[in-house]
Design goal:
Layout lengths: L2 H17 L11 H6 L2 H11 L2 E4 L7 E4 L2 H9 L4 E2 L25 H9 L5 H20 L7 E2 H18 L3 H15 L8 H25 L8 H6 L11 H31 L1 H9 L4 H12 L4 E6 L3 E3 L2 E3 L4 E5 H4 L35 H18 L3 E3 L4 E2 L8 E3 L1 E4 L1
Parallel strand pairs: 2-8
Antiparallel strand pairs: 1-2, 3-5, 4-12, 5-8, 6-7, 9-12, 10-11
């Protein structure tokens, strides 16, 4: 059986399983559904049959699921009644494990922090990085062996993400590795009850993170020519209180580092898409001018961040559903991006899709992803380089998905290069 046939068979099996699931008892956030890919047909059923769905019992507690694109946009735009403050993932984070960042805040704090880092993600700033990105990706792909198995996730996607973090923060390879480790610690928690030893170990490591940021902030705050993100944060114009607000600084840095995971997921999804839809690869080889649109389609089709959560600040009547103050409201971007009312044959990967850019992978409204231009640039340069260097990037086995309902990407993708 060809790999394309295997991928189709896997989809058919997931669709068959989804038809037998009772929506009344459905916990769509079950991470096992995402690891096996069965969430996709289940979201299709929710959009058709139960677009505002309540799960009364789950490991995360009770929550509402919003699955249609227009409803997701409406709630994203209503930060007064649906707040991002403190938490944007489906489960609750222990208070002692929380760190502030603009992603988990509402106006006016959200805008204040966002404006500080925005210049580092401008199109002008990223155009300066593009040539360096081309050289890095060219060297990365040139070093891959032909005719031997390659793990695309670890050998390409992860290395591309690490390089970009280093470029954005002006850090060397060793510093990037430490920053990624610290940032992972910041979001690594047990939802129920972290043990004392685990908590203490985490706090010791975060103390190192604290010391690193304090040192760098003192080194870079007096250099007005520096445009890297750590310098921008150190030189923020609305006060000189950085060292008194180190938690916010750590949270914002970790947010930006963690956002790299979304690029990693999309860079990995390219390989899955062109094997599931080989005609797309051939079309791109014939018409490389379609690459920018193909990048938007990858971001839509994959949806690197599967969901964002809001918390109701008051009782709300929404399409007949009685959402109570304090309720979790989960916006499933991965569902909205396949909404049939917006994307015809939304489960298909189509490099000539005329409205691919209308995806909601970046969010909507004030929380629209600040790093979207960086992600698009990396993916465009990567896909262009792939088309020039390889006749094809063939899957050798079914890809393995991550065990996550948030970073819904891939952990392993074994490929052979021609």
């Amino acid at each position: 059986m060809s790999i394309q046939a295997e991928l189709k068979a896997h989809e058919t099996s997931a669709e068959s399983l989804a038809r037998g699931v009772s929506l009344d008892q459905l916990d769509i956030g079950d991470i096992r559904r995402f690891s096996e890919g069965s969430h996709i047909p289940l979201f299709a059923r929710l959009r058709r049959e139960h677009p505002v769905h309540f799960c009364a019992d789950s490991p995360f507690g009770p929550y509402w699921s919003i699955t249609r694109a227009t409803d997701i946009k409406a709630i994203n735009a209503d930060h007064r009644r649906f707040s991002s403050r403190h938490n944007v993932i489906i489960g609750d984070i222990p208070e002692s494990f929380r760190f502030p960042a603009f992603m988990v805040s509402d106006p006016p704090d959200h805008g204040k922090w966002r404006r500080v880092v925005a210049p580092g993600f401008s199109k002008a700033a990223l155009s300066e990085l593009e040539q360096s990105c081309r050289r890095h990706i060219g060297s990365l792909l040139a070093g891959l062996p032909l005719g031997k198995p390659v793990d695309w996730v670890q050998d390409v996607s992860a290395k591309l993400t690490s390089w970009m973090i280093g470029a954005l923060f002006d850090l060397d390879e060793q510093q990037v590795a430490a920053l990624i480790e610290w940032s992972n610690l910041l979001i690594d928690f047990e939802a129920e009850n972290p043990t004392h030893s685990r908590y203490q170990s985490r706090q010791d490591q975060l103390a190192n993170f604290d010391a690193f940021l304090r040192r760098v902030s003192l080194e870079r705050r007096d250099d007005p020519t520096a445009r890297d993100l750590l310098s921008l944060l150190s030189q923020r114009p609305y006060g000189n209180e950085l060292l008194d607000d180190i938690d916010h600084f750590m949270g914002t840095v970790s947010l930006i580092v963690g956002a790299g995971e979304t690029t990693r997921s999309a860079a990995s999804a390219i390989v899955v898409a062109i094997n599931r839809y080989p005609e797309a690869w051939e079309r791109l080889r014939e018409e490389p001018g379609l690459v920018p649109n193909a990048v938007q389609e990858v971001i839509r089709w994959q949806t690197p961040l599967a969901h964002m959560r809001r918390t109701a600040t008051e009782d709300v009547e929404f399409h007949g559903a009685h959402i109570r103050r304090g309720d979790r409201v989960v916006l499933w971007y991965c569902s909205g991006n396949r909404d049939e009312s917006l994307f015809r044959n939304g489960d298909d990967f189509d490099v000539i899709r005329v409205n691919a850019r209308n995806h909601i992978s970046y969010g909507h409204g004030i929380h629209r992803c600040i790093g979207r231009h960086a992600a698009e640039m990396q993916l465009r340069v990567l896909l262009e380089a792939m088309l020039k260097r390889f006749e094809h990037v063939n899957l050798l086995s079914l890809p393995k998905r991550t065990m996550s309902n948030y970073f819904a990407g891939y952990s392993t993708i074994s490929v052979g290069l021609l």
